[in-house]
């Protein structure tokens, strides 16, 4: 299915590293073309020939048939009217409430809740989903089997030098130690270990097909006596002995995206000796409220007067739950954002700190706890409908923030980044830190920008407080949703005013 494919393309394209400046350059092109036609006043039928592209067959596969459950009268020129029983072609689902659909050559928004999928199509889709791997290992390890990601990672000097520095500054203590390099990729960290220290053994574990080349690289650099490359998933490989040090570069965008951290924790529990060392030893997620004037101008203010025309219905649309521009550009976080230190409205705040020794896989999950309150006369059984079920989230990755703004400006959103710390083998204190924030050398992760739907003018002395929740997707194990809740307390009003907001950002499912 095209939409799902687009989502997966997003996923592989955003595996830690981002190749496209805009998340939406890969938005379904069919939708974009249809929308262009809509703007030009042509109907789909009239413009069939305009639509023909070499990708047409693939694009047509994206269209899904839905049946109208009841009559609907569209309000405004961008909504479709339909009658119960009509078959609509849904081209895109820009939000959960409003879909972009076609009926008899006309195209427009329709309310999703008025439609149901054709039963056969729904069953086929469900089956397709059931067959999919929730870890998406094929795409994931497929992309690490190519050079593109490795080139980007190795070209990131700050990142790679940080690992080199860790090995170098601990070289004496690494003597005769056994090391596992989890997810060794091209083997760079294992090679640093072998060349800069004298470990007795380095197990370089890599699940992707890159492992075959890594073996050659180890040999080419004369390290085969120390480094053993093992191809396989870290969760499944067997080592001949436990290790003194587990080193891994597992961090993704916004620290956790990809959830490679789970593989690290599983390997830690299986193979790290009692008292062994984890590199990184801890990880911190940092947040700051910020301005993003140029991004806002590029994606939102642009529609105010392009070529002297008024395109504001794309920006502000009373009929839409979320106008198109907001929906397309601000629904997901912007990866690869480089925030200017000047755009931070105040001092950043650490919202999450992970201790790599004590963190558990279950800590990464949202645990749904069901509380059944028994109706006094009914037997104690979970299936009794007379019982009341209360469901609440007992645990999720959650951090609090409280910012006191140091300057006036426009609050466009929050920017997040992470820092990891490596402790010394000897002293246990921190030796090296890799900081991906705006005051350090840019890394390939850059920063992650979460745009609010609407900018808010703020003033020095105002405060912004709230929390951030990272909810791992319970099906798609490498994805999560970041939810921000905030309240802005104004210091300038005679009577205190508070504005509250909340927004969830899927990354990507
Ligand atoms: C971010 S890259 C780091 C590569 C290399 N360590 C470096 O610093 O250049 C992560 C690597 O870990 C591998 N990987 C991820 N999860 C893994 C797992 N569960 N078992 C083995 N390898 C894994 C990926 O295929 C990828 O090559």
Please render the helix and strand layout as text.
Blueprint: H1 2-13, H2 29-40, H3 48-51, H4 56-60, E1 64-68, E2 87-92, E3 98-103, E4 106-111, E5 115-117, H5 119-131, H6 137-144, H7 147-155, H8 157-169, H9 171-174, E6 178-182, H10 188-196, E7 201-206, H11 210-220, E8 227-231, E9 243-248, H12 260-271, E10 272-279, E11 282-290, H13 293-299, H14 324-330, E12 334-337, E13 349-355, E14 367-373, E15 388-395, E16 397-404, E17 409-423, E18 430-435, E19 447-458, E20 463-472, E21 480-489, E22 498-507
Parallel strand pairs: 6-7, 6-9, 7-8, 9-10
Antiparallel strand pairs: 1-2, 1-5, 2-3, 3-4, 11-13, 11-17, 12-19, 14-15, 16-20, 17-18, 17-19, 20-21, 21-22
Bound molecules: S-adenosylmethionine.
Entry summary:
The chain has 509 residues and is α+β, with helices and mostly antiparallel strands. It has 14 helices and 22 strands. Strands 11, 12, 13, 17, 18 and 19 form a six-stranded antiparallel β-sheet that branches.
Mean pLDDT: 84
Number of helices: 14
Return the CATH class of the largest domain: Mainly Beta
Q: Per CATH, what is the topology of the largest domain?
A: Hnrnp arginine n-methyltransferase1
Class from secondary-structure proportions = alpha+beta
Distance between the termini: 15 Å
The CATH superfamily of the largest domain turns out to be Hnrnp arginine n-methyltransferase1
Number of domains: 3
Question: What composes the largest sheet?
Answer: 6 strands, antiparallel
Task: Name the beta content range.
Answer: 25-35%
Count of DSSP strands: 22
- Low-confidence parts: 1-6, 18-59, 367-394
> Which CATH architecture of the largest domain is right?
Distorted Sandwich
What's the helical proportion of residues? 10-25%
Give the distinct bound molecules.
S-adenosylmethionine
Task: Give the CA-based shape.
Answer: globular
Radius of gyration: 26 Å
């Amino acid at each position: 299915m095209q939409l799902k494919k687009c989502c997966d393309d997003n996923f592989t394209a955003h595996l830690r590293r981002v190749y496209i400046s805009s998340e939406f350059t890969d938005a379904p092109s069919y939708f974009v073309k249809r929308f262009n036609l809509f703007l030009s006043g042509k109907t789909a039928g009239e413009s069939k020939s305009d639509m023909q592209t070499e990708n047409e067959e693939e694009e047509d596969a994206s269209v899904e048939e839905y049946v109208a459950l009841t009559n609907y009268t569209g309000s405004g020129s961008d909504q479709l009217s339909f009658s119960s029983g009509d078959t609509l072609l849904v081209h895109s689902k820009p939000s959960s409430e409003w879909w972009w659909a076609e009926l008899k050559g006309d195209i427009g928004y329709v309310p999703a809740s008025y439609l149901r999928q054709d039963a056969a199509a729904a069953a086929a889709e469900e089956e397709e989903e059931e067959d999919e791997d929730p870890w998406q290992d094929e795409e994931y390890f497929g992309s690490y089997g190519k050079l593109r990601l490795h080139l980007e990672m190795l070209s990131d000097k700050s990142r790679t030098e940080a690992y080199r520095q860790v090995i170098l500054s601990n070289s004496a203590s690494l003597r005769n130690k056994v090391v596992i390099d989890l997810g060794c990729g091209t083997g760079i960290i294992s090679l640093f270990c072998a060349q800069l220290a004298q470990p007795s053994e380095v197990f370089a574990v890599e699940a992707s097909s890159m492992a075959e080349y890594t073996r050659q690289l180890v040999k080419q650099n004369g390290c085969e006596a120390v480094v053993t490359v093992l191809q396989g998933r870290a969760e499944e490989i067997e080592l001949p002995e436990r290790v003194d040090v587990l080193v891994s570069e597992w961090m993704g965008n916004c620290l956790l995206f990809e959830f490679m951290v789970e593989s690290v924790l599983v390997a830690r529990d299986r193979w790290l000796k009692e008292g062994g060392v984890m590199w990184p030893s801890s990880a911190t997620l940092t947040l700051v409220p910020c301005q993003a004037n140029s991004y806002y101008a590029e994606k939102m203010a642009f529609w105010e007067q392009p070529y002297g025309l008024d395109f504001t219905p794309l920006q502000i649309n009373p009929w839409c739950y979320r106008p198109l521009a907001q929906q397309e550009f601000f629904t997901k976080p912007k990866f690869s954002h480089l925030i200017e230190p000047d755009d931070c409205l105040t001092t950043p705040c650490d919202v999450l700190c992970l201790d790599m020794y004590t963190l558990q896989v279950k800590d990464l999950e949202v645990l749904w706890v069901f509380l059944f309150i028994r109706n006094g006369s009914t037997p104690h059984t979970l299936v009794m409908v007379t019982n009341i079920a209360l469901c609440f989230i007992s645990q999720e990755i959650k951090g609090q923030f409280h910012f006191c703004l140091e300057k006036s400006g426009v609050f466009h959103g929050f920017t997040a980044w992470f820092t990891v710390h490596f402790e010394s083998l000897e002293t246990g204190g921190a030796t090296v830190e890799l900081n991906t924030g705006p005051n350090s050398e840019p890394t390939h992760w850059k920063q992650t920008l979460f745009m609010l739907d609407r900018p808010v003018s703020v003033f020095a002395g105002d405060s912004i407080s709230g929390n951030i929740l990272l909810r791992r997707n319970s099906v798609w194990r490498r994805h999560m949703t970041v939810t921000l809740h905030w309240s802005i307390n104004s210091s300038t009003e005679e009577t205190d005013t508070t504005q509250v907001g909340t927004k969830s950002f899927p990354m990507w499912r």
